[in-house]
Structure formats: C-alpha cells, structure tokens
Amino acid sequence: MRDEVVVSPGEARFNAIRRRVGLIAAPLCFAGMLLWPTGLEPAAHRLAAISLATVILWVTEAIPLSAAALLAPTLAVLMGVATAEEAFAPMAHPLIFLFLGGFMLARGLSVQGLDRRAALWLLSRRWIVGSPARALVAIAATGFAFSMWISNTATSAMLVPVATGLCATIEAAASEGSRLSADEHHRSFRRYTEGVLLTLAYACSLGGMTTPIGTAPNVIAIGMLEEMVGVRIDFFAWMRFALPTALVSMVVVLGWALSRFRAPVERMHGLTDAVRTQLAALGPVRPGERRVSVIFALTVLGWLTPSLLRLALGEAHAWTQWGKTGLKEGIVALLAALALAVLPSGETRAVAGQRESVPLLPWDEALRIDWSTLYLLGGGFALGKLTFSTGLAAALAGGVLSLAGPLTQQPFGLLAISTILMISLTEFTSNTATTSMMLPVLIAIAGVSGVAPVPVALCVTLAASYAFMLPVATPPNAIVYGTQLLRINTMMRFGFILDIAGVIILLGLGSILLGLGAP
User: Which of 208, 237, 288, 470 has the fewest Cβ atoms within 10 Å of its own Cβ atom?
Assistant: First the structure.
C-alpha cells in the first residue's frame, strides 16, 4: 500500500473546516444555480448546477474526489440531462484502460523491485552527486523528453514509480542519523516529494505539446486548420513554435519548483556512496526484473510504433492506418498488464503442498492499484462530454467572448481572451474534448472579426496543455495524484501560479514567433 500523506494538526483542522464548508456550499450553490434564470436550455441549466456543485466538492474535498466525480453523471441521469447510457459511456473511454494497464505495469515494476533499482541507479550518477534538487531536475527532464515522442499519459505512468522510488530512497538515506521522529522526518520530506511529482506531471504535459504526436489536441488543431482554413502545418513547423514555448515554460516550472519544494537538505554527503551500497545490496538482476523490463520496453515500443509508422511510411499507408487503430495506447497497456499477470517471474511458491510458478504480477497484487483515480477520471470524462453535448461549454464560451466585447475585434484581444478561456475550461474538462469543441468556434470568430486564425488556433491548442490546478485537468495530473502522496491544495496553489505564467508565455511567444498578421 502507498504511504498516506502525513499532515500537521493545523493542517488537519483547516482541512476539516474546508470539508464542512464544502458540504454546506455545494448544495446551496446547486439550489441557487437551479433557481437563477440563466437563459440556458433546460438540460444545460441543470448541468450548470451539477457542475458548480461538483467543482466545489472537488476544491474543498468535502467528499472523496472520485465520489464527487461519480456524483455528477449520476445526478445528470436523475435530472434528465442525459440517459444512463450517455452519461456513463465515458467511464469506458479508452484512456481509462490506458490508466488501468499503466497502473498495473507500474505495480509490476514495483513488485519485481525494478523501480527501486532504476531509482538507485539514477541517484548514483555522478552528475547528481547527492543533490535532491538535481534529482528533481533529472526526473522532470526525462518526462519532458519522453513526452515529445510518446503519449504524455504513458510517460507519466511510466516514470511515476521511478519518481516515488527516488523520493523514498532520498528520504531513507537522509533519515540515517536524523534526530527527528519518524513522523517529523517524513513530514519534512513531504513537500519535496510533492514537488517532484508535480514537476514530473507538468513536464510531461509540456513535453507533449512540443510535437504533433505528443498529445491529442495537437493533432486536432492541425486537422482543423487544414480543413477550415486551408493551412497545413508540418511536423517541424509545429515544433518551431511549440518547442521554444515549452522550453521557456519548463524553465519557469523548474525554477518555481526548486524554490518552493526544497528538500530539507541541499546536499547529502555520502548519499552517492550510500546509494551505491544499497544498489549493490540488491544483488544481480533477477529473472523477474529482466522479464518485466522486457515487457516495459515492448510497451514503450508499442506506444511509439504508430508515430514511427506515420513518420516513416506516411499517413495513408496501410500499416500506418493499422497502427492508429490496432495499437491504441490503451490496448498496448492492457496487453502489457495481461502479460505481467500470465508470464512467470522465475520464482515459485508452495500451494497445498505443491510448488507453482509465480507470475510477474500476481493477481492479488494487481488488485491493489488505485481504483479511485480511475473513477475520478471516468467521472471527469463524463462531465466533460455532457458539458459539450448539452451546449453548456459553447454558452460559457459565447458569454465570455461577448463580455469581452470590442477586445475580440483586435488580434491580441481575441488571442488573449481565447487563451485564458481555454486554460480555464481545461482545468475542469478533458483537454481533447475542449479543443474539439472550442477550436471551430474560435476559428469562426477569428474569421468574422478579420483576425488571422492560425495564431489564435495554435495558442489556444497549446493552452490546452497548461491545465495544472486539478487532478481531473490532465491525465498526468491524475496519475501523480493517484499516488496519494500529493495534496490537492498543493497542486492548486502551485498550478494557479503556473497557469498565470502560461498565459503570459503563450501570449508573448505567440506574438513574437507567429506574428499576429500571419495568415
């Protein structure tokens, strides 16, 4: 089981007050929104009340986040917003199965001890030389680089076990000779662990936006610009804008993380030697570790293959088309999970007087994954889909743009309003769904206003990756929150600052690199 987050008595009192406020505010705001004449369609009006109550419950953690997420589609069915089939269909979204397989893969790495070996190996490198700050940078840089070429979701699922193992190793090494109690020592390292996990999640999101294949909104934007505007953006044209934007953002994330989430010790003398001693104590690599590493490598190859086929053979090739449909990320993750549950680890155990082979991931261990995060994501997907299908998202977008008034008639004004709107919406709904819904509307508004649509579309698409405040905002956020080592109020405070920084960076680089007069 994962360690629970240790909180101080003051934090416990604050959390208790926050939950009581949420239990009172959520139903009151729900009723108030229902009674308020919004002018929306009935289904959208009722969903607005449900969404407001859900957001309050998420922010205050009055009830478990996954329970609040499941409450939204349940109330939608009860209130006639959608049928049960429509409301709960997103619970079987392919991304849910990617999470399921990814969690089982991570569990398999942990059961076989490969995550600990990888963490110790990384910590023993000379360029880290006992520095927790450099370890944080190493994890984030790895996530950023991998997410450029494979799914940011898959990358975060892949690296979270390494990150948690790394933090646990640093904490254990620092505890030797410490005068603090176990709880005090754990609490002193808690913020550092939170910083490592948050930085990893944000690095994966930023890395994913740098290439057309990094995340789904990028592909959606390229397709819509070609269909609606007649502008084709190739691979390197995308990177020419997105990569500098992401690198500047990554510098901001690392700078802010290193200042806010410092480890209690800046340098741990003897850490490298201690880690190497622990690494040597693990002994030679066991058969189970080798086999799970092969499955891990094949999983990464499976995630990467569709993109490689597209680059090597072209979009129209039959193999490329098969890769897009047959090697969906969720399918690859499930195949890996099933392989872990079936293939032997090389060890045996006694059962009823007989020796039987132990699989790489025994099923009782597989059942210990974080199911609550799957419920949270499923509920978030359901709420996002209903937001669009009822017209609530379009009404919110139209309202914000109409309030902006003359600003939308100016290139920079439309760019600014659209970017802020996208970042705000993707905090609560799927960035893929938000991009699919908002881009046609914004491209049309740009055309009517006489504003060049390409800068607006590109900045808004990149803004979909700048959702840093809530676990439901992006899959990497949800994955790191699923470790149960991260408090939501920490994510919200850190993410809010980065959202503001993201707006500034996108607007600045959007103006410089593209030019607001671009076609």
Answer: 237
Distance CA 387, CA 44 (A): 8
CA atoms of 465 and 455, how far apart (whole Å): 16
Among residues 261, 301, 287, the alpha carbon closest in space to that of 163 is found at: 261
Determine the Cα–Cα distance for residues 424 and 14; give it in Å rounded to an integer.
26
Buried b (16+ CB within 10 A) or exposed e, 483-495: bebbbbebbbebb
207-to-122, 191, 249, 462, 512 alpha-carbon distances in Å: 21, 24, 10, 11, 21
DSSP string, 272-286: HHHHHHHHHHT-SPP
Q: b/e string for 269-305 if b means 16 or more Cβ within 10 A?
A: eebbebbeebbeeeeeebebbebbbebbeebbebbbb
To the question of pTM greater than 0.70 for the whole model, the response is no
d(CA 371, CA 367): 9
How many Cβ atoms from other residues are within 10 Å of residue 30's Cβ?
Answer: 21
* CB-count burial class (<10 Å; 0-12, 13-18, 19+) for 406: exposed
CA–CA separation, 123 and 279 (whole Å): 10
SS3 468: coil
The helix or strand, by DSSP H or E, that contains position 487, with its residue range, turns out to be none
| Structure tokens that stand for 114 in this block | 């490969």
DSSP element (H, E) containing 383: helix 371-389
Q: Could you give the 3-state DSSP secondary structure of residue 41?
A: coil
Grouping H, G, I as helix, E, B as strand and the rest as coil, residue 348 is strand
d(CA 104, CA 370): 9
Torsion sign over Cα 464, 134, 369, 98: positive
Q: Kindly give, in sequence order, each residue whose CB lies less than 8 Å from that of residue 401, ignoring residues fewer than 6 positions away.
A: 408, 417, 421, 445
**pLDDT tens sequence across 293-342:** 899 888 878 877 887 887 788 778 888 888 878 887 778 888 998 999 99
d(C-alpha 447, C-alpha 225), whole Å: 12
Cβ–Cβ under 8 Å, residues 175 and 471: no
CB 99, CB 377: distance < 8 Å: yes
Using one digit for the tens of pLDDT, what is the confidence trace for 179-237? 555 666 667 788 888 999 999 999 999 998 888 767 778 877 887 787 777 777 766 77
pLDDT at res. 516: 45
Residues 6 or more apart whose CB falls under 8 angstroms from that of 158 comprise 102, 105, 106, 146, 296, 300
Using H for helix, E for strand and C for coil, what is the string for 120-142?
HHHHCCCCCCCCHHHHHHHHHHH
Look up residue 302 and give its amino acid: G
How many helices (H) does the chain have, and how many strands (E)?
A: 23, 2
- Alpha-carbon gap, residue 238 to 171, rounded angstroms: 41
